[in-house]
Protein: arginine kinase
Organism: Penaeus japonicus
Amino acid sequence: MVDAAVLEKLEAGFKKLEAATDCKSLLKKYLSKDIFDKLKGQKTSLGATLLDVIQSGVENLDSGVGIYAPDAEAYTLFAPLFDPIIEDYHVGFKQTDKHPNKDFGDVSSFVNVDPEGQYVISTRVRCGRSMEGYPFNPCLTEAQYKEMEEKVSSTLSSLEGELKGTYFPLTGMSKEVQQKLIDDHFLFKEGDRFLQAANACRYWPAGRGIYHNDNKTFLVWVNEEDHLRIISMQMGGDLGQVFRRLTSAVNEIEKRIPFSHHDRLGFLTFCPTNLGTTVRASVHIKLPKLAANRDKLEEVAGKYNLQVRGTRGEHTEAEGGIYDISNKRRMGLTEFQAVKEMQDGILELIKMEKEM
Ligand code: ADP
Ligand code: CIR
């Protein structure tokens, strides 16, 4: 049984969403009264409710999506809400569709998207992974956060060659070092209100940290939004080199840590936008002519299934005309296809900019 206090919050949240006529989130779009009534009394075996799923989007009416999965079971139990949102975000991944098996494809077919270095400042590809046997943020205990951090950092310490690096826990890191890592785009920001409202920042900074190699081209975020975010990045537009480094890192880490995988949804993540491949391949790019109007840029990018973000990531503004442009879809296509979609779209945008 769901507590009376939780039910009361749920009813108030639903009313708030109903009244928010200018709210554009997918939560608002798909949480009908029927679905709400069907799901409000449900509880996962770890005790998570619909409130855990929707509270971020209720508190932040400017959310693009607005929901998170407190544990793996939530994707099944609350499927009447998750499934249409997944289908909408991942552009046509239907409720009867099955995400394909992992396939990095022929990584040598990726190119430098800007060999003359005129537009692209840097390139990054990341993927997310959840550790088997652990729920997501709102259901984790402080002891679990620390245990996971220990498992991940000790595993990463066995990596060699280009992937060899050091783990830096957030606990004890000076504010200066932390801010420099954030400003240089290597570390997650602190105090994300969407994550906070989703109950994803409890016990912060316990169990959180970053691993990176010396030149910060290979990085792993530990226990931020997802258990692991595996990242490859470097200056310039050499997507081939960036993706090759990522695939070799993921292959190495997968040999050592078992990850949560769902037969239909692919790799499981806290946010439904990251399911499936979990891959976000992005460039930091300057397109002064195309970007003279951000709405226009977003419209053109949308045609290629690309998403435009600000310089410091999601929900930020562009600084100095630098945009973060990445593949939007992560489900219903392979890792290779997700990165290819980004490569093809960026090559088109650069071509358009040149012709303007
Ligand atoms: P995520 O990649 O996990 O979805 P964000 O949108 O919050 O998360 O971005 C995380 C960080 O990665 C931010 O500091 C952002 O500026 C940085 N970033 C993303 N793409 C690039 C890129 N191509 N080059 C450099 N930094 C990047
Ligand atoms: C939102 O709904 O805006 C936040 N919860 C973040 C969603 C993830 N964004 C995305 O487009 N990948």
Q: What stands out?
A: Strands lie at 120-129, 165-169, 209-213, 218-222, 228-235, 261-262, 266-267, 280-286, 306-309, 322-327. Residues 16 and 74 are 23 Å apart (CA to CA).
